[in-house]
Every structure is written in C-alpha cells, then in structure tokens.
Write a structure and sequence with these properties.
This protein is mostly beta strands. Helices cover about 0% and strands about 50% of the residues. Strands 2, 4, 5, 6, 9, 10 and 11 form a seven-stranded mixed β-sheet that branches. Strands 1-3-8-7 form a four-stranded antiparallel β-sheet, with no helix packed on it. The protein is globular.
C-alpha cells in the first residue's frame, strides 16, 4: 500500500517559518504540495520533477520546494508566512503521465497575526 506521510505543520506567528516534510513509501515522478482552505478545493502550492519546479504565484519568493535524490521525500520550506497561508497542507505523489496519484493525510499550518 502506497503511503505519504506529512509532518512539520503547526502554529507560527506571521513572518515566521515552517518546514514541511513528506515521506513516501516509494518514488514518484512528481511530488507536490497542495493546500486547502475551509470550504475550498485544494490548490497547488508547489510541485517538483527532475526537470521542472512550479510555484503558485501567491508563494513565489517565500516558499521553496525540494526533494531527495531517491524521489521519496519532498520538503516545503515556508518563510515570511502570512495569516492567509493558514490551511491544511497535503502532499501528493504522481506517476509519470499522471497515471496514479496518491495523497497524504494532511498537516495543519496556522499562522497567527
């Protein structure tokens, strides 16, 4: 059974930093971070493949995604956090051509003003 396990969420003051980690039970072509606000659909925060890194406009310059060489662990370094970054953050692993997608259970990030 494929598993992705996130960690690193928590409560931080505005302007602070957090580092999220996601450990997968196997490697993936694409690893990404998404977030979900109450009552909203999940949205892409950042994703990474061997050839490409994508960021949502709202996090560019503040968040950095990285992964290990084995392609089983992905990180999200979040700096200069804002209250509007408060959400549940999910890790997703996707195989090549999007054939299979797996989600983690999510981790809460709360930024106080």
């Amino acid at each position: 059974q494929v598993q992705l396990v996130e960690s690193g969420g928590g409560l931080v003051q505005a302007g602070g930093s957090l580092r999220l980690s996601c450990v997968a039970s196997r490697s993936f072509f694409n690893l990404g971070w998404y977030r979900q606000f109450p009552g909203k659909q999940r949205e892409l925060v950042a994703s990474i493949t061997s050839a490409n890194i994508n960021y949502a406009e709202s996090v560019k310059g503040r968040f950095t995604i990285s992964r290990d060489n084995a392609k089983t662990t992905v990180y999200l370094q979040m700096n200069s956090l804002k209250p509007e970054d408060t959400a549940v953050y999910y890790c997703k692993g996707t195989d090549v051509f999007g054939r299979n997608q797996f989600w983690g259970q999510g981790t809460q990030v709360t930024v106080s003003s």
